[in-house]
Amino acid sequence: MSLFDTYIIVDWSASNVPKRGKDSIWACRQGDAPINLATRSEAKSYLEALLSDGIGKGERILVGFDFPFGYPAGFAKRLRLAGEPWRSTWKFISDRITDGPKNGNNRFEIGAQLNERVSGGRFPFWGCPPKTPEEVLKFLGPRRNHPDSEPLRERRLIDQWMVGAQPCWKLAYTGSVGSQVLTGIPVVRALRDDKRWEHCARVWPFETGLTLPAEARIVFAEVWPSWWKWKETREEGEIADRAQVRHVAGVFAQRDREGQLDAWFTPPVPSECINDVVSEEAWTLGVVAPRLRKARGTA
Question: In what order do the strands lie in the sheet with 218-222?
Answer without folding.
Answer: 35-37, 25-29, 6-11, 61-65, 218-222, 201-203
